[in-house]
Design a protein that fits this description.
By secondary structure, the chain is α+β, with helices and mostly antiparallel strands. The chain has one domain: Ribosomal protein L7/L12, C-terminal domain/Adaptor protein ClpS (Ribosomal Protein L30, Chain: A). The chain has 4 helices and 3 strands. The protein has a 3-stranded antiparallel beta sheet with strand order 2-1-3. Bound molecules: L-tyrosinamide (TYC).
């Protein structure tokens, strides 16, 4: 007769640990430049980063004054997708708007 690998209590503890494990999170920053229009940056923050208009304007002005600003914090795949979409839309319009990703 083989012994079960884990008791029911050990299994419950393992499952709870797995469920409460948080994925690594990634900050997406927007960088300032001299060419992208303020309106375009606000549109990106609303459409791609799902921010309300007032928050989009606040972040855009923060980036304009300080050089960079946080657009949002996401899991790796979502952060990378938002950066790619931003760069694709910006390049299509001829803007150099750039985002960076930093692990939290
Ligand atoms: N500095 C730009 C301008 O004066 C506006 C701008 C803001 C550009 C934020 C990029 O991430 C940015 N038109």
């Amino acid at each position: 007769m083989t012994q079960p690998a884990f008791t029911p209590i050990e299994e419950t503890i393992q499952k709870t640990r797995q469920k409460s494990k948080k994925p690594p999170m990634f900050k997406v920053f927007l960088l300032n430049d001299d060419y992208t229009t303020m309106e375009f940056v606000v549109m990106i923050l609303e459409e791609i980063f799902d921010l309300p208009a007032a928050e989009a304007v606040r972040i855009m002005l923060h980036v304009h004054k300080n050089g960079r600003g946080l657009a949002g914090v996401y899991t790796r795949d979502i952060a990378e997708t938002k950066v790619k979409r931003t760069h694709d839309v910006a390049r299509k319009q001829g803007y150099p708007l750039t985002c960076t990703i930093e692990k939290e």
